[in-house]
Amino acid sequence: MLVFIARRLGGGLVLMLGISFIAFALVFAGGSHAAHSILGQDADAAAIAAKEAELGLDQPFIVQYGTWLLNALRGDFGHSWFNSEQVVDLIGTRLPVTLSIVTVSVLLTALVSVLLGMTAAIRGGWLDRAIQFVSVAGVALPNFWVAIVLVVIFAVTLGWLPATGYVPFGDSPSRWVASITLPVVALLFAGIASTAQQIRGATIDVLSRDFVRTLRARGLSERSVIGAHVLRAAAGPALTVLSLQFIGTIGGAVVIEKVFALPGLGLLGVNATIKGDMPVIMGVLIVTAVIVVLVNLVIDIVNGWINPKARLA
Fold first, then answer.
1. What rounded mean pLDDT belongs to the chain?
2. Phi and psi (nearest 5°) for 24?
3. CB atoms within 10 A of CB 94
């Protein structure tokens, strides 16, 4: 198991290095216009050249990347080119917002999807058809449309929940829950729809295997067969789907943060991209990539613990 974890960890580190290089190369491709954007349209060539020298944009690409990488390994992503704030500080204030809605959404998605997917696979009949219909509807409806409908009904019409804004958990747990409820529900709708379908398919596949019929023939109770064996066998595909759902939820959070005016990481990245703020863009990309790699690492470890065959992959 330790060899399996070390192999996965090494692969994650190599992946992070590759992501950082490619991301820096893509951002660097538009770096020639950065000084012009910072100084404005009226800046002359001398001022632009001086600004590029100040930012280090006049150096070769590999030198720029090496300098950035060494600083990033020390936790220093530089400062914003437009407001001089440290990128780490900007990310530190925005990250809890995004993690709040994404983590709660994924956890609820896992719980509800397992219940719906397994129920549909085991019970079948009208319940299976109803769950499939809801799943298809959830995939078809865009999350920004669901978010707007939720705001109109529960915030504007009923006044039960706030339409915009975010309250940190440390300030008020109850207001924190209220501030993330609608964003989480908006993300849940599509997440549960797609994940429940995948879990349903995985459960049906396991139920058709010979070992399940053998367990039933031995007289084991249906609860024991489902809880101790079917669920364990279907856990591998389910965990893979949930890891992909986590990545998709991070992407969907960008739109949700915009709709609900949440000061999250996605909104920070979008605004930095519009302005061409390279240090902030790189900081957001790397932090997001680290989160995704860590989540996949945890999923792989859990999957390897549940299914020893997965350690051979």
1. 80
2. -65, -40
3. 22
Are 254 and 269 contacting, i.e. CB atoms less than 8 angstroms apart?
Answer: yes
DSSP string, 134-202: HHHHHHHS-HHHHHHHHIIIIIIIS--S-SS----TTT-HHHHHHHHHHHHHHHHHHHHHHHHHHHHHH
Helices (H), the chain: 2-29, 34-39, 45-55, 61-73, 87-123, 125-140, 143-150, 173-207, 210-217, 222-224, 231-259, 265-275, 278-306
Provide the β-strand partners of residue 79. Answer: 86
Query: Residues with Cβ < 8 Å from 186, sequence gap 6 or more?
Result: 143, 144, 146, 147, 150, 256, 259
Q: Pick the range with the lowest mean pLDDT from 37-46, 145-154, 190-199, 278-287.
A: 37-46
SS3 24: helix
pLDDT band for 304, please (50, 70, 90 cuts). low
Total residue count of the chain as it appears in this document: 313
Phi, psi of 145 (to 5 degrees): -65, -45
Percent of the chain beyond pLDDT 70? 87
CATH topology of domain 103-276: MetI-like fold (1.10.3720)
User: Residue 4: what pLDDT?
Assistant: 66
What are the b/e assignments for 61-80, b being 16+ CB within 10 Å? Answer: eeebbeebeeebeeeebbbb
Residue 212 one-letter amino acid = V
Distance CA 189, CA 164 (A): 19
| pLDDT for 43 | 66
The whole-number average pLDDT for the span 240-256 is: 80
Give φ, ψ of 86 to 5 degrees.
-65, 135
Residues 84-109: tens digit of each pLDDT: 789 899 999 899 999 889 889 888 88
